[in-house]
């Protein structure tokens, strides 16, 4: 798990579809009403872009993203 890589949601773009919440099996997200909120950033796997790939509105970016390719080895089918 990572302290240097975690998702940030742009709520101006977020359509509250829940794709990120439903995708992540590491407890990174919680729903407040319909809005996904990052509550456990340490649970995010370094290099995982699974939730970003599923986000239909492009509302997810990552702290620590240097523009490199996926580097996920968590087995969560990123």
From TrEMBL:
Gene3D superfamilies: 3.30.70.20. Residues 5-34, 35-65 form the 4Fe-4S ferredoxin-type domain. GO terms for molecular function: 4 iron, 4 sulfur cluster binding; metal ion binding. Pfam families: Fer4_10 (PF13237). PROSITE patterns: 4FE4S_FER_2 (PS51379). Keywords: 4Fe-4S, Iron, Iron-sulfur, Metal-binding. This is 4Fe-4S ferredoxin-type domain-containing protein. The lineage of its organism: Bacteria, Bacillati, Bacillota, Clostridia, Eubacteriales.
């Amino acid at each position: 798990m990572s302290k240097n890589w975690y998702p940030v949601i742009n709520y101006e773009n977020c359509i509250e579809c829940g794709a990120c919440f439903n995708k992540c099996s590491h407890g990174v997200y919680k729903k407040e009403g319909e809005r996904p909120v990052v509550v456990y950033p340490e649970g995010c796997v370094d290099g995982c872009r699974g939730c970003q790939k599923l986000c239909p509105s492009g509302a997810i970016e990552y702290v620590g993203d240097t523009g490199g390719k996926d580097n996920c080895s968590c087995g969560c089918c990123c």
